[in-house]
Amino acid sequence: MPNGSRRDFLRTTAVALTGAFAGRCRLAEGEDTVQKPNIVLIYADDVGYGDLSCYGAVGVKTPNIDRLASQGLLFTSAYATSATCTPSRYSLLTGEYAWRKPGTGIAAGNAALVIEPGRATLPSLLKQAGYATGVVGKWHLGLGEKTGEQDWNGEVKPGPLELGFDYSFILPATGDRIPCVYLENHRVVGLDPADPVSVSYRQPFPGEPNGVTDRGKLRMDWSHGHNQSVVNGIGRIGYMKGGKSARWVDEDMADVLAQQAIGFIERSKSKPFFLYFATHDIHVPRVPHARFAGKSTMGPRGDAIVQFDWQVGAVGEALDKHGLTDNTLLIVTSDNGPVLDDGYVDQAVERVGRHRPAGPYRAGKYSVFEGGTRVPFVVRWPARVKPGVTEAKVSQVDLAASLAALVETELAPADCPDSLNMLPTFLGTSAEGRAYIVEHAGGLSIRKGDWKYVPPGAHADGLCPPHKIAIDKPGALYNIAEDPAEANDLSAQRPEKLRELGDLVEQIRRSGRSRPAA
Ligand code: NG6
Ligand code: CA
Fold first, then answer.
1. What is the mean pLDDT of the chain?
2. Which atom of ligand 1 is nearest to the CA of 88?
3. Residues within 5 Å of ion ligand 2 by Cβ?
4. Domain range holding 446?
5. Which of 105, 219, 251, 507 has its CA 20 to 30 A from that of 516?
């Protein structure tokens, strides 16, 4: 489409949408024959606000995501709910803040499923609207009924299929946690019954390689933790034995997952589909495929970002190939902020150079400062979303209610209790964001307008855990607009603001929900 007519098209679409999403956020009058959009949510692991070139990265180029951003809407104030994986994913899928539910901290590789089957979830709400639903990639929300009692050689359930996904191809937990195998639906992929898998988070299996005793033979040394079983020459968290034919090869993982994501799209393209593609990249261990080695200036961490960008491009190409791009709502975001040394010696600290993984923001993964949860967030839907940049505040906890509204699934009062319908904001037809954002990393901080409250206590700071700093009572207050780096505590100058935000966070905690019940 020539530029001029594309502009006209966008203007007309924008005008139509302003009307369409007024009121109850339904699709426009008379548009009920319009095919529901496909929804693809690409969820990166540990990619920080400043890690993509469309967000100012200098140590790496991300042309595929940059292209999406130029065709879509780039958010500068988007947040994961938490500064680590399990709670962010819990909130994303349930529309409930993870901090309301005990047991939703970083899950062990043999943890039981942390979401109760039967409750409304993002996939179950879309499934109800007739969507084919699939998850590919990192799960990290536990599996099975009881911790440590999964039958890895039989059926491993409940899991994604019991939560509303029709299809699942996952890593049970993380790349650095045992068991290092893929699961397709209920079963470990490629398992030889003659060589069953055993998993333990208590004790080593005698005679099996171990990150302490075999440290000299590791392909990548560990800096903290990650010194239990050795798989593919890399120390992991937890112990495993057997299942040799089923073990993943880290350097092939991005290809395997991209292929699975594309396979799901191809199998599902005759009806609307929802794909939750949760990449392993750029979590540790960072072992990208050889073709990405040296493609950034930052060593394996930067090369893993290039690999992540490649996966986004591969999904985009598949959508193009099947003529699905125009009516697919594609979201690219991350589960928490960045970290440099997360337990392996991979030069992330030494080679970061002038690159700022959290952009202008303070700290990263594990932290209640902005770098912990403020993440990249790009929405592309050529048929409906006008390209641009927005400062509107959005939270991933709102995707469940917003996407349910998009597909016209009604939420019961008990469903997704912290999820607000922010569809017009996500689609760029409203510039008005959330009134406040709760940021979780053990404690709860809150951002309202330009103000940010950080509670008293010990908080992770910097990009190399476990560095912590203490915030004294009654907490700290920053003006994010003037001081994005949260460097000047204004609590003494603005005690009433500090109290207002501190009270607000307490009220949200006590209320047990964010969406009005009726
Ligand atoms: C930590 C791990 C870290 C990472 C994190 C979870 C150690 C020393 N550190 O406990 O490497 O796995 O858990 O990351 O083991 S997340 O992105 O999945 O939340
Ligand atoms: Ca993560």
1. 94
2. 19
3. 45-46, 85, 335-336
4. 438-511
5. 105
